[in-house]
Amino acid sequence: MKFIILTSFLVLSYMVSAQTDQKLYDIIDAVSADRIKHDDKTLVDFGTRHTLSDTVSNTRGIGAARRWIKSEFEKISKDCNNCLDVFYQKNFVKKGTGERIVKDVWINNVVAVQRGTKYPNRYIIMSGDIDSRVSDPNNYTSDAPGANDNASGMAGTIEAARVLSKYKFENSIVYLGLAGEEQGLFGGKGMAEYAKEHDWDIIGILNNDMIGNISGVDGVIDNRTFRIFSEPVPITETEQERKNRRKYGGEVDGISRQLARYIYKTTKTYMPEMNPMMVYRLDRFARGGHHRPFNDVGFAGVRIMEAHENYNHQHQDVRTENGIDYGDTFDQVNFDYAKKLTAVNAINLASIASAPPAPKTVAIGGMVEPSTKLKWDKVDGAVGYEIYWRDTTSPTWDNSRYVGDVTEFTLEGIVIDNFYFGVASVGADGFESPVVFPNQILRD
Ligand SMILES: [Zn+2]
């Protein structure tokens, strides 16, 4: 009997591991720390990339930096038979719009779109920032290397484009360089509005902001852990949706949180040496990042970043004081770590871009019954669906069941009161959409 149990356990664990895809391991291996390092250095060498800095020079300032980023995307595109649409998305911001806009400025984002073969208007986005700053946020002339904040995220985004442009995906992938971050998240705001105006169906944005520091001001050195910040529920929800939560739950199950859980799971599956740390908040305490303007208009979005920050190396004039080195300099960045976090992004972009859309509506019922019923709309392109559930106190989708190509299912013996539930679509290659938390109630 013992032998049989052991055997079936082995069969089961084989089946679980057989669900992984070699393509994602190849993508991890293809990400290069050397290329990220080289690109980071190139960005640092523009002296300052402050949003209000020089735009005419070809060697110094944000103008030179964005032209170089655009030319890199164009080079990558040339190598993949023009597989990327590369363009500037421009936003004019008037002097005085915020305390940090001390003169009129054009904020130019650099956009590279790898068009999806089946769902060209569905987008999964990876972003980094172009701009940098020193101690005084309005000083746009001093050297502001911004090697970690945020040349690391920008270089990682360019490298992800290099690696993923070798493949074709059903959904579009956007590689995005955003400006105006340090001046008040202006680039992200402009880009999110552009996406709304152009009816982009955004699956989510993975905003990378500081992915290269492993030596924290807290004394911890850690090249395995990283943080995924996500807001609990969308700020755009209706009053009715807010009220419904008291009855049906969902306080920690917004669309950005499901994206965070997706990244957590993909990382644990393909890069088990890493420690993804979900943080249940929009961003760090009272601080911001470029996923927020996307969240502001109702898109899913998370911030991916190092676990241990070093404040001596952020937003600081480059100097030595009392024996302490200040400044966000190139020598402080760990590129093996930046490579790992770039790979985390790349496998999640690839996985989401390979998956069918999630069901739009998921209905749930089962009040005063010993079972839970779920019903969802059929998704074109899905070969089946996976139902997930978890204890109400668990951060991750710990239980799941593949139910095949049906649009309703009853989980016998599972009492609705004691768990949270969700449904994901599954494509022919096994790639899954993010989980959808029920958004309708089934009444019989
Ligand atoms: Zn910053």
Describe the overall structure.
By secondary structure, the protein is of the alpha/beta class. It has 10 helices and 17 strands. The protein has helices at 2-17, 22-30, 33-44, 62-79, 151-164, 186-197, 239-248, 255-270, 292-296, 335-354, and strands at residues 84-93, 105-114, 119-129, 171-178, 201-208, 225-229, 275-279, 301-306, 319-321, 324-326, 362-365, 371-376, 384-391, 399-404, 408-412, 419-426, 440-441. The chain has an 8-stranded mixed sheet with strand order 1-2-4-3-5-8-6-7, sandwiched between helices. A 4-stranded mixed sheet has the order 15-12-11-17, with no helix packed on it. It is globular, with a radius of gyration of 22 Å. The two termini are 44 Å apart. It binds zinc ion. Residues 149, 182, 315 line the site of zinc ion.
Which structural traits does this protein have?
eight-stranded mixed β-sheet, binds zinc ion, alpha/beta, 444 residues
Number of strands: 17
Describe the biggest sheet? 8 strands, mixed
Q: If you compute it from the alpha carbons, what radius of gyration comes out, rounded to the nearest whole angstrom?
A: 22 Å
Which geometry do the CA atoms define?
A: globular
Structural class by SSE content: alpha/beta
Contiguous uncertain segments of 5+ residues: 1-18
How would you describe the oligomerization state of the chains in this entry?
single chain
Number of helices: 10
Order of helices and strands: HHHHEEEHEHEEHHEHEEEHEEEEEEE
**Share of residues in helices:** 25-40%
Distance between termini? 44 Å
